């Protein structure tokens, strides 16, 4: 897996291109020379976590024949006040929307993703206090 990150020539904007060809822009806040044209790199870490665990949970719930209509993942984080301002705590909250969802199956999918399958979560847990929970919303 290879990613190329290229400065856009002014300000603090960088475009990252993954080996799959997909590109995303990252930028800094205006107060540090950015133009706010993309998410901050640390926001990208949280987005990657959400995408990774979300894919796991949706795949598992589909295999468990759960009638899911939507999954939303809300991630809250805390960072160190000292430089480098690393994450110290991350909480992942799943909102699983569906019809007649089985609480035990949803819990199992969320737990398996957080504790076994999500590579991003496993990588972060080495240095970050990680937690997760879920709620089922009938639709």
UniProtKB/TrEMBL annotation:
SUPFAM superfamilies listed in its UniProt record: OsmC-like
Gene3D superfamilies xref list: 3.30.300.20
One Pfam family linked to the record: OsmC
UniProt xrefs under InterPro entries: KH_dom-like_a/b, OsmC/Ohr_fam, OsmC/Ohrsf
The protein's name: OsmC family protein
